[in-house]
């Protein structure tokens, strides 16, 4: 922090040790940390609104690039790396993704895993309540769909961070995160759809 020198001098003269910050310094040596803020007081949404959001989220997860081919020039880069590897000039490592970490996780990657864990816990806690209340009262159960949606959004955000180039995750980590998050979102989507079309209450 930067401090106003004159304010500091006046504070020392008056016997007070408190200093008032007047600005801050932003370091340019480190990339910005990805921070996701989600409102915990989001208004309740209907099953139809939650279902539409879940469908968009599912499509986003489906399009995630787990191979890194888009970052390295698309299919042409993959074909070039494959031919180099087959001819012996690529040493069998032409199609790998560069790793930025091994045992020690970066701040963004650790935050992404925490988001995935938090999203899974939220879905686990809300799904049973959503099902039981929805069986008794469809209108009240529909209000709980926003809790399921928030959990799925946390999963999607975590997977998106892991797939970003600055995260430096390898192909296996990307593939596992994508498959796990897609499976959870698809399950929640099927649950909400069953209440939206009424088949769950038949």
Automatic annotation (TrEMBL):
Biased composition (Low complexity): 79-88
Region of interest called Disordered, as start-end residue ranges on this chain: 1-31, 67-90
Comp. bias intervals (Basic and acidic residues): 1-15
Superkingdom assignment: Eukaryota
Name of the molecule in the record: Uncharacterized protein
Protein species of origin: Trieres chinensis (Marine centric diatom)
């Amino acid at each position: 922090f930067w401090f106003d020198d004159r304010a500091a001098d006046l504070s020392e003269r008056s016997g007070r040790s408190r200093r008032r910050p007047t600005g801050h310094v932003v370091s340019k040596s480190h990339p910005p940390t990805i921070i996701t803020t989600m409102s915990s007081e989001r208004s309740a949404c209907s099953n139809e609104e939650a279902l539409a959001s879940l469908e968009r989220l599912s499509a986003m997860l489906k399009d995630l690039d787990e191979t890194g081919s888009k970052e390295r020039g698309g299919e042409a880069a993959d074909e070039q790396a494959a031919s180099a590897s087959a001819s012996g000039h690529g040493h069998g490592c032409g199609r790998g993704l560069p790793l930025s970490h091994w045992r020690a996780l970066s701040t963004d990657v650790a935050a992404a895993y925490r988001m995935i864990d938090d999203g899974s816990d939220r879905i686990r806690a809300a799904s049973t309540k959503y099902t039981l209340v929805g069986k008794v009262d469809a209108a009240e159960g529909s209000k709980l769909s926003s809790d399921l949606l928030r959990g799925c959004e946390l999963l999607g955000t975590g997977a998106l961070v892991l797939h970003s180039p600055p995260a430096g995750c390898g192909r296996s980590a990307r593939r596992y995160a994508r498959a796990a998050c897609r499976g959870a979102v698809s399950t929640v989507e099927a649950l909400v759809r069953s209440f939206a079309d009424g088949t769950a209450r038949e």
